Amino acid sequence: MKKRPRLANALATVPPKQIQLIERRLFLKRSLSLGALALLTGCDVTDTDAVEKTLWAMSRWNDRVQGWLFNPRQLAPVYPESAITQPFPFNAFYDEDEVPVVDPQSYRLALGGLIRDKKPWTLAQLYALPQVSQITRHVCVEGWSAIGKWTGVPFRYFLERVGADLSARYVGFKCLDDYYTSIDMATALHPQTQLTFQFADRVLPAKYGFPMKLRIPTKLGFKNPKHIAEIFVTNVYPGGYWEDMGYNWFSGL
Ligand SMILES: Nc1nc2c(c(=O)[nH]1)N[C@H]1C(S)=C(S)[C@@H](COP(=O)(O)O)O[C@H]1N2
Ligand SMILES: [Mo]
User: Which of the ends of the chain has fewer CB neighbours closer than 10 A, N or C?
Assistant: First the structure.
């Protein structure tokens, strides 16, 4: 397993990965020197706590601005079958031999938070929902992208069906591999955001997120949770696995 860096020590080592990540969150084109950081934040850079708090506040502000700029009707590009990337890359915070093994019979999708009907769903019930396919590009922050075909139920349809509070701010995801992430409601309701059960016209393979993932072609790859165990709706910022380490929370494309 890759180690999770400690954010608390953000400025203790040079060059700290966390600062690079937070810089990326702030979408600054040039790298930010410690001096510039001090000027920007008005903090003594030796006061790690104050700098960090300020950077996180700036970052949350940045998320809000990106949220305002997001056009809920703008579609991500779609591609022909011939453009599909083969083989499609696998990525996770662990190696491929550690992908969770999920029993389809006992699996239940849990629902939580601001949802009227929180009854858990079996896979058979989920598979009976109306489904659509999309061929879109997955872009990973680590520097690769790939085109794939995903099939599932439009997430908006599912949220409406279970009586989710569509005026809430966030939809959060807990995964079977302890990954977690969350998205803004506008993106959750975007026409291409899909609760996905199939990859390349076959049941979603284990490595790509069996039994289901959320496919969001308008966001970076790490915002696309695989192996979803629970979906919850909330007004309390839920963060995410990489987000809590400094990756930009909104991460739109
Ligand atoms: N549950 C879970 N979902 C996850 C991850 C993870 O480690 N665990 N990694 C994310 C990242 S960084 C990427 S790029 C994509 C990779 O999806 P793929 O294996 O289908 O290419 O899954 C995302 N969703
Ligand atoms: Mo990624």
Answer: N
- Residue 78: CB atoms within 10 A of its CB come to 14
Report the separation in Å between the CA atom of 117 and the middle of ligand 1, taken as the mean of its atom positions. 28
User: 143: CA distance to ligand 2 center in Å?
Assistant: 8
Pocket test for ligand 1, best of 138, 139, 204, 226 (most atoms within 8 A of CB): 226
- pLDDT tens, 35-88? 777 777 777 777 778 878 888 888 899 999 999 999 999 999 999 999 999 999
**Ligand 1 centroid distance, CA of 178 (Å):** 12
Kindly list the domain boundaries of the chain, sorted by start residue. Answer: 6-69, 81-245
Residue pLDDT, tens place only, 87-98: 999 999 999 999
Residue ranges lining ligand 1, Cβ < 6 Å: 89-93, 140, 175, 177, 179, 207-208, 221-222, 224-227
Domain 81-245 listed as CATH 3.90.420.10: yes
d(CA 74, CA 93): 30
